[in-house]
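In response to reviewer comment 3 from the previous cycle, which asked for concrete evidence that the modeling workflow produces usable outputs, we include below a single protein chain processed end to end. The sequence was submitted unchanged, and the resulting structure tokens are shown without manual editing.
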Amino acid sequence: MGLAEQQLASLNTAIAIAVKGNAFYQPKIAEYGRSKGFDSLDAFSEKMPFTTKRELAEDYGANPPYGSNLSYDLKDYTRLHQTSGTTGRPMAWLDTPESWSWIIDSWAYIWRVCGAKAGETAIFPFSFGPFIGFWAAFEAASKVDLRCIPLGGQQSFERLQMILRHEPQWLCCTPTYALHLMNVAERENVDLTKCSVRSIIVGGEPGGSVAEVRSRIEQGWGGARVFDHHGMTEVGPVTYSDKENPNLLRIIHEAYYAEVVEPETGRAIDFGNIGELVLTTLGRNGSPLFRYRTGDLVKPVRVEGEDPRAFALEGGIIGRADDMVVVRGINLHPSAVDAVIRSFEGFGEYQVSISKRDPMVQASIRVENISDVEDELMRMKLQKRLREVFALRIPVDVVELGTLPQFEMKAKRWSVSD
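The workflow returned the following structure tokens.
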């Protein structure tokens, strides 16, 4: 069975389950007369309307506390996780044992394809809250027979001591926290270049596919290989770094039917152009998503020698459709600004402020200097580089170390004031 046939079969299974009991999707499916499923993936893309985060939020508001996108009775759901709330109010997301198993299988595939081997050790330096990503990564690591060490409830230096004591081969965290541990290690005279970690899976932010960020992490951790990954609470684990080309994110196409569309029109785009990633889950049937507009901006490219429907994402997650800011006619994406700042040695945390109060939108940056170089010289170097890259004068203010917040989970570095 080819990829398209496999995807269509999984899709129609999800449709059949939703038709029986999913109050959120029943009207949508019935409206287009597709209660018996679709004849092809193209017909699905043509007939099935998009699902948006706004729709989900409104449904949660109207049907608290879990919304109506549930295909089974509430008693059948055994897992609850929650979205980060980055773009709105957090939403709780429920999973049945079958749906959770599907998530774990996808994450287990990521561990294996990145090279994890039974008997190795993986360490997880984060708190185990309602965020889905690290729970799934942890359980999947155990499934592929890794020795898993959780480091919740500890300070960063304690976590570094655990890494030195237990000598893990794998580290799993956000790009921001990998960089933060490097800074803490430097302050505490811990030489991470000689530690046991040889592979780092990062997620939660786009930094793992940003060459400058990836290079900084790999150098700081003694040449450890960085693998990027992205997913969403409401969708699941979606991508992983190509082992041969770290500039590519590979999609788990067996688990998702992926499309890329123009954000403004919703029309499909050609390969090589930037558009919005749209995902349909092919197995999370307890709380499915059909043609979900993720808001993630990506550049799809063909992969030579693979199924013509399969594609990878060049440059990873380039940004979010709602994060891009136009400053004096120039498009600013958070990942692009992050790349410039991380191209320098000596900068720690930073914050970007966008002001829309003036007739023209203004941007400014506050950054911590963790180097021995004087603040003014660092400020001038960064400001000069920003102007070269973006053709904009972006004021930079160097602030005292420890002034800006540190992030263990998704970093929230951009603030916009109207």
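The longest strand covers residues 347-355. We consider this sufficient to address the reviewer's concern, and the full set will be provided in the supplementary archive.
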